[in-house]
Specification:
Layout (H helix, E strand, L loop, with lengths): L9 H12 L5 H22 L2 H15 L1
C-alpha cells in the first residue's frame, strides 16, 4: 500500500492515538478510514451540486489549513 504524504498536527496525532487505544486498529488504519469516510462525504455533497455545499467545503478546507 502506498504511503500517504500527509502531515498531521499535534492535535490530530493525539486524536488518532486516542482512537487507536480504544480499538484494535493502528493510527494508520484509523487515518485511512477517516480519509475514506471524509472523501465519501465530500463526494455526496458535490453530487448534490448546490453552491451552499461547495461553499461549505471551501470554508472547511480553509479551517483545516489553520
Amino acid at each position: 500500500m502506498e504511503r500517504l504524504k500527509i502531515r498531521f498536527s499535534d492535535t490530530t496525532d493525539l486524536q488518532l492515538d486516542d482512537l487507536a487505544s480504544k480499538s484494535d486498529l493502528n493510527k494508520s488504519d484509523i487515518a485511512r478510514a477517516a480519509m475514506a469516510f471524509g472523501i465519501g462525504k465530500i463526494q455526496m455533497l458535490l453530487a448534490n451540486g448546490s453552491e451552499a455545499n461547495k461553499d461549505f467545503l471551501k470554508i472547511e478546507a480553509l479551517k483545516a489549513r489553520q
